[in-house]
Amino acid sequence: MAWIYLLIASVFEVAFALGTNATRGFTRLWPSVFTLVAAACGVFTLSLALRTLDVSVGYTIWTGIGSIGTVVLGSVIYKERITTPKMIAFAAIIAGALVLRLGS
Question: Is Transmembrane a UniProt keyword of this protein (predicted)?
Fold first, then answer.
């Protein structure tokens, strides 16, 4: 169940990151409310996952999935470019998460 909580937390993390851009510096009410709720839900569900998972594994995978999801969806929603350095960083994040998972 901890891995399911971690995946849910990661979805909220991506929503939080993308929502932060939509707030325009927290000057827009509804995007700001959405962003704060997503952040709270993400931290809450992460805390549920960390009941069982090591914090070093859970937090790293949470931020890794959040980072990758934000870059991918940022390219779709905000038309941001996915460059070669971003692709290399993706590979490093995925490799690191796999090593952590296999080592735990």
Answer: yes
Alpha-carbon dihedral of residues 8, 10, 14, 15, nearest 10 degrees? 30
Distance CA 44, CA 92 (A): 27
Helix axis angle, 55-77 to 84-103, nearest 10°: 150
- 54 Ramachandran zone, left/alpha/beta (phi>0; psi -120 to 50): beta
Distance in angstroms (rounded) separating the CA atoms of residues 94 and 92: 5
DSSP 103: H
**pLDDT tens series, the chain, 104 aa:** 999 999 999 999 999 999 999 999 999 999 999 999 999 999 999 999 999 999 988 998 899 899 889 989 999 999 999 999 988 988 898 888 888 878 86
Report the C-alpha dihedral over residues 18, 24, 28, 29, rounded to 10 degrees.
50
